[in-house]
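haha ok so turns out i had the wrong file open the whole time. this is the CORRECT one, sorry everyone. sequence first:
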Amino acid sequence: MTSFQVWLKSYNKALFALLSILISCSAMAQSEDTVVLSGPTEEVRAGYFVVELQQVSPALRPLTLQVSHTKSFSSVLQTVPVMGDFNQVTLTGFESGHYYIRAVHQQRVVSQTAIEVTVEHYPIWQAVTLFALGALLFLLLLLTLIMGHKKAVRHD
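then structure:
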């Protein structure tokens, strides 16, 4: 091998090592600049759900969650500040519909992807039926207690 070939081989090794270091540093820096969000994967039947925050570096605090009906976030419905060093946030008060949620730090989107949550409340007829059954059972319990009390008073 000529001296140029030896030099070229060592140059390539050094260049490869430098490139590997830069790629690993870039991956570490990217993981510190992004937040991974996860939420319910199935349809939510109540008006609340929990969003989990993963890989949140202290540099990204304070963090804000934005909620929108569209994936492009052209109109933000709600902005929720994440106070403290929590990894879970409960969002509540949602009507039936599709919602997209992303994380923002100082006007910069820091979540890798927006999560999609679908809320579909129970139908009103089901809620009214369950309420009526509960009221009927409560009235039966009251009648039983009153009749038992009257019977006990008569036997005394």
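Residues 111 and 117 are 15 Å apart (CA to CA).
again sry for the mixup
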